[in-house]
Amino acid sequence: MPDFTIHPDDDKVVMCQRCRQMMKSLARFQPEDVRFVSDVNPHAELMTRAFGWRYLAGSFVLTFFETLYEFAASGFRRRKVARLKREILPRYPGSQICPRCLRVEKRS
């Protein structure tokens, strides 16, 4: 579950310039907190009734490929966040990271 609390050592809430998400502290950020694949399609029952088995089969195929993408992307994201922490945190301990695009704003 993502942590949406604002910690006392964060001076201000900073929004990412690129994707307009709330940035989080790089020191506390864990890439496992973020999922991009939706869990449930709210219109699945309606679409299945309207388009039948073609929609249902397409939903399963789409879910399969989204799961493969998330599996591949999660390894990349973990390695990138570990590298950013290793390189940036010693010099800029108050840095913040965007959980979506991994853009870092260096703050001392």
Provide a descriptive summary of the structure in words.
It contains two helices and three strands; from the N terminus they run βααββ. It is mainly α. The protein has helices at 44-51, 53-88, and strands at residues 24-25, 96-97, 104-105. The protein is elongated, with a radius of gyration of 18 Å. The protein has a three-stranded antiparallel sheet with strand order 1-2-3, with no helix packed on it. The chain is 41% helix and 6% strand. A hairpin with a 6-residue loop joins β2 (96-97) and β3.
Query: Strand percentage, roughly?
Result: 5-15%
Number of helices: 2
Main sheet: strand order:
1-2-3
How many strand units?
A: 3
Mean pLDDT, as a whole number?
77
Question: What are its keywords?
Answer:
108 residues; mainly alpha; 3-stranded antiparallel beta sheet; 41% helix
Set down the secondary structure blueprint.
Elements: E1 24-25, H1 44-51, H2 53-88, E2 96-97, E3 104-105
Antiparallel strand pairs: 1-2, 2-3
Helix pairs in contact: 1-2
